[in-house]
Amino acid sequence: MKNYFWVLLLLVSCQSDPQPKPQSSTMTTASLSNAVTSGAGLETATLGAGCFWCIEAIYQRLDGVESVVSGYAGGTVENPTYEQVCNGNTGHAEVAQIVFDPKKISFREILEVFFQTHDPTTLNRQGNDVGTQYRSAIFYHNDEQQKIAEEMKKTAQQWWDNPIVTEIAPLKKFYKAEAYHQNYFNNNPTQGYCVFVVNPKVQKFKKQFKEKLKKEAAAEQ
């Protein structure tokens, strides 16, 4: 996933990546864990936005989100491994499966964050992560999600100068990624990719969506 020889370059590229047009205390790891995976009244979104370490860390901090699980979707190979997905031959994208409480946050709001916390205008890449596994994608779970995704893609185009290339497709199968990928940023905050890539994205999200943060995330240093 991460070619560490260009990690210093990433520090510069993160600051210069295309950005959407502007719109009008220490947290414990346990408080951001993925303990809840299902429940009555909860809904699920499955999104690809480049490296799943990034999208997982962002949505773990969004109020109304109950759990986030990193995994793979959109391909043809059953039970893919991380190494297979990285080779780019499985058709799978790295995704996060997000369980959320629709009484606290809507699917539309989930996508509002999605379209403003990654670059949906670059085909099969995010920054220096290149390959079909890093494509921008919304894998909808039902007809209503498909309708909202299509609407939000049109709305989000107003925020970006270049055409949005986000794939919108039905979710056929979600495969949970290996255990070491789960809760990755919270467990490995000093790892190189987390320092130079994930953390800047998280900080940008926290600044842009501060009114939508969990209390623990708002207090996070």
Q: Can you walk me through this structure?
A:
The protein has a single domain (33-216), classed as 2-Layer Sandwich (Peptide Methionine Sulfoxide Reductase, Chain A), CATH 3.30.1060.10. 33% of the residues lie in helices and 18% in strands. It has helices at residues 7-16, 52-60, 82-86, 107-116, 143-156, 184-187, 192-208, 215-219, and strands spanning 43-49, 65-73, 93-100, 125-126, 129-130, 136-140, 167-170, 174-176. Helix 5 links the parallel strand 6 and strand 7 (167-170). Helix 2 crosses helix 7 and helix 4 runs parallel beside helix 5. Mean pLDDT is 87; it is low at 3-16 and 24-37.
Please render the helix and strand layout as text:
Elements lengths: L6 H10 L26 E7 L2 H9 L4 E9 L8 H5 L6 E8 L6 H10 L8 E2 L2 E2 L5 E5 L2 H14 L10 E4 L3 E3 L7 H4 L4 H17 L6 H5 L2
Parallel strand pairs: 6-7
Antiparallel strand pairs: 1-3, 1-6, 2-3, 2-8, 4-5
